[in-house]
Input
Amino acid sequence: MPSIAELQKRIGYSFRDEELLRHALAHSSYANEHRHEVPGSNERLEFLGDSVLGLIAAEFLFTHYRHLPEGNLTKLRALLVCENSLFAFAKEIELGCHLLLGHGEELAGSRERPSIVSDAFEALLAAIYLDGGLEAAKAFALPFLREGAEEIAGHQRSYDYKTTLQEIAQQNPGELIQYKLIQATGPDHAKVFEVHCFLNSNLLGKGIGKSKKEAEQMAAKEALQIMGEKLN
Output
């Protein structure tokens, strides 16, 4: 197993109290099998880390995404701190390799289990917070949050054409985007849908897809292209 020193080098933070780090890495299965080696599992640290991460993420989004209303900020924060995001962050620092697992969890391949690894990421953040304070926790978490937010925003711009079109329309009060199913052809197992996108009563775009939703997205995409929007 990689050493504690290797992990500290990888995360760019040196602990004054390395026992905090060991505690953050200790899964409940390990804590139960090695009661005298660690003060307990990382579950309490994970609880604290969840709140610390939420605060850091909220402040980051509030500061850097001033154009977004509260509802959008809430959705973006939820995506940033969800299990999938935290698992991706943890993989960047190879956190799974450093986890302290019980025998059964080791055999079960839990070093690659998203729920366990993402919880450990939050526990690690809490340990940094307790050892070095909020600024140290921010220094660790913010690069991940920036990267995650950019990826999410890019994904939404690339694939959620309907939302992008709606946001543009909302900049002009009274403008209404509507989608109309023109036809659905083919057998039930392989239907093709055609949808037209209208701005008020004006045809903006046409889309074809294997589902009504896909056709709506394609119609919105064509509308955005006609409007001169640059799409990925």
Observations:
- The chain has a mean pLDDT of 91.
- The chain is about 60% helix and 10% strand.
- The longest strand covers residues 177-185.
